[in-house]
Specification:
The complex is a heterodimer of chains A (about 290) and B (about 270). The model of chain A has no long low-confidence stretch (mean pLDDT about 90). Chain A has helices at about 1-30, 35-40, 50-55, 60-90, 95-100, 105, 110-120, 125-135, 150-175, 180-185, 190-200, 205-220, 225-230, 240-250, 255-285. Chain A has about 290 residues and is mainly alpha-helical. Chain A is about 75% helix and about 0% strand. Chain A has 15 helices and no strands. Chain A is globular, with a radius of gyration of 23 Å. Chain A has a domain at about 60-255: MetI-like (MetI-like fold, Orthogonal Bundle), CATH 1.10.3720.10. Chain B is mostly helical. Chain B is about 75% helix and about 0% strand. Chain B folds into two domains: about 1-50, no CATH class; about 55-260, MetI-like (MetI-like fold, Orthogonal Bundle), CATH 1.10.3720. Chain B is globular. Chain B has helices at about 5-30, 50-60, 60-90, 95-105, 110-125, 130-155, 160-165, 170-185, 185-200, 205-210, 220-230, 235-269. In chain B, helix 3 runs antiparallel to helix 9. Chain B is built from twelve helices and no strands. Classes of the chains: A mainly alpha (about 290), B mainly alpha (about 270). The interface between A and B is large, with 94 and 97 residues. Chain A: Pfam families: BPD_transp_1. Chain A: One of its GO terms (cellular component) is plasma membrane. Chain A: Keywords: Cell membrane, Membrane, Transmembrane, Transmembrane helix, Transport.
């Protein structure tokens, strides 16, 4: 009887998850062009597409940028989110309202955040360079210099990711019994000591999940980078996600096979971390 | 620290965090000739409504499409996910655990991969650049999340309530429809909220599956506006402000559901 209620979602998963994924793997093993899409008859190419992307000069930078983008985003999102969660956990007037306002960046469409940051970071007329100029720092070519483009997209991504970390860590704080803090105070613990000896260790399970979910989301980030820099200039902010998109859809002559191959490498990365997440979650439920 | 000091610090932190949002609004009212002023005007003095006039002239059809796609995605997501959540939470059929596992994995698949697979399929069956095609693709972002939220929520419905329905002679379907669904209102709101926001802000499916038709969503409207017209930043930012309105309204009326959704989706699976 139960499966009668599950049938729609099962069929849906087969038709709209499994089948597209299968088509994507098939794409990566064939020599596809737009013409072969319409007329059929794309020759089987085996692992040629994978060989092609592994020896592509974009491969090493894209891997490096994916790692740097992910690690830096997570480190800043998490530490800032943690600090804010601890701060807003105190009781003071307006604390609840202000915390709700912190959700706004996370709810805005990414195209909105990305285009706002693009304009704020504009070299000539951006408000960020104007502010830097006011304190005597010369203008930075945030989006047009290969040295800064990756930093720029990381800044925007950190801004977008803070609310998620704040909300999840805040809910973790709520689960810590108040008596522990009272005991620590009686023992004469300072604020710092209370954080490092009580809050931080007790938040470890929630922190692990926050970081792993953040990791899986950050690996997939595409919109922000594509809208702000399109992975440029000269691949300086290209990650696997934007590279895959550019190969498949970013040119007049699409390279679907290699694009799908890059996408499949990305999915392997995401799945590895996903399985780690599920393992940790299982262990916590025991 | 005194409570007033904390409030002051909280206000400053919030102001810093929301500065980009303020800046978007400020720029949307700035005149073209003031756009490159040095230093930039911090307030829209001599403001203009030109940007908003441009939105009304050019972007209304895109907004309409996004609204349709968003509502369609909500309907499809709730229709698929609510019965599944009920089955997983209350009927516990054999293999349900495996299905939950598949749903968790499904959430980890990067959008670009789904987009390529969908593109290949849509090209063959001819639904590229169509609203139903986009609704189907966008629903893949929300359906696994929806099932997991419904499962978590419906597990909390007391068994007595279900048994009372059975005693009254209700079958499974009737119990689901007249007992489970009404008491699950909060989770329906949470799932609908996220399904709508995700569909409304989707860019990757829009740009790969719906880049060429007559009915394009607002995310593409903004993107193409930037591409064709990177001088009129007041109009671009005015479009951005308008595109953010649903998120703002939803945040105001449903903030507790937002927090509930984030934490339930993250922790309780």
């Amino acid at each position: 009887m139960g499966w009668a209620f599950l049938a729609p979602v099962t069929l849906y998963l087969l038709a709209f998850y499994a089948y597209p994924l299968y088509r994507n793997i098939e794409l990566s093993l064939r020599e596809y062009t737009v013409r072969s899409f319409v007329q059929g008859g794309a020759p089987f190419a085996g692992l040629d597409n994978y060989r092609k992307i592994l020896s592509d000069p974009t491969f090493a930078p894209a891997l490096l940028h994916t790692v740097v983008f992910t690690v830096a985003s997570l480190a800043f999102q998490f530490s800032i989110g943690m600090a804010l969660a601890v701060f807003f956990y105190q009781h003071f007037p307006l604390s609840r309202t202000l915390r709700a306002l912190f959700l706004v960046p996370w709810l805005l469409p990414l195209i909105v955040s990305a285009s706002t940051w693009s304009w704020m970071l504009n070299s000539d007329a951006g408000v960020v360079n104007a502010a830097l100029g006011a304190v005597g720092v010369g203008p930075v070519n945030w989006l047009t210099s290969p040295d800064w483009s990756l930093v720029s997209v990381i800044i925007a991504n950190v801004w977008i990711g803070i609310p998620f970390n704040l909300v999840v860590l805040y809910s973790g704080l709520q689960a810590i019994p108040a008596t522990l803090y009272e005991a620590a105070s009686l023992d004469g613990a300072t604020g710092w000591q209370r954080f490092w000896r009580v809050t931080f260790p007790l938040l470890r399970p929630v922190s692990a999940i926050t970081l792993l979910l953040g990791l899986i989301y950050t690996l997939k980030v595409f919109d922000i980078i594509w809208i702000m820099t399109r992975g440029g200039p000269t691949d300086s902010s290209t990650t696997f996600a934007t590279w895959s998109y550019r190969l498949g859809f970013g040119n007049l002559l699409p390279a679907f096979g290699p694009g799908a191959a890059v996408g499949n490498l990305l999915i392997v990365l995401a799945l590895i971390f996903g399985l780690i997440y599920i393992r940790i979650q299982r262990r916590q439920q025991l | 620290m005194r409570r007033a000091t904390k409030t002051a610090i909280g206000l400053v932190l919030t102001a810093v965090m929301l500065f980009p949002v303020y800046w978007m609004i400020n720029v949307s009212f700035t005149r073209d000739q003031d756009m490159r002023a040095d230093p930039p005007h911090l307030f829209p003095v001599d403001g203009t409504l030109e940007g908003y006039r441009a939105v009304l002239d050019q972007q209304l059809p895109y907004l309409g499409t996004s609204l349709l796609v968003g509502l369609g995605t909500v309907a499809l997501t709730v229709a698929l996910a609510a019965p599944a959540g009920y089955a997983l939470a209350k009927l516990r059929p054999a293999g349900g655990g495996a299905l939950s596992f598949v749903l968790l994995i499904a959430q980890m698949i990067p959008g670009i991969i789904m987009a390529m697979g969908f593109y290949a399929i849509y090209l063959n069956i001819g639904v590229l650049n169509s609203i139903p095609g986009l609704i189907l693709a966008d629903s893949t972002i929300a359906v696994p999340f929806g099932v997991l939220i419904f499962t978590a929520f419906m597990s909390g419905i007391p068994e007595e309530l279900m048994q009372a329905a059975v005693v009254d002679g209700a079958g499974r379907l009737r119990t689901f429809w007249s007992v489970v669904l009404p008491v699950s209102r909060n989770s329906i709101v949470t799932v609908s909220l996220f399904a709508f926001l995700w569909a409304w802000s989707d860019f990757i499916f829009a740009s790969t599956l719906d880049g060429g038709g007559d009915h394009r969503p607002i995310t593409l409207g903004i993107y193409q506006y930037i591409g064709n017209n990177n001088q009129q930043w007041n109009a671009i930012m005015a479009t951005a402000v308008v595109a953010s309105i649903p998120a703002t309204i939803l945040l105001i009326i449903a903030q507790r559901y937002v927090a509930a959704g984030v934490t339930a989706g993250a922790i309780k699976d």
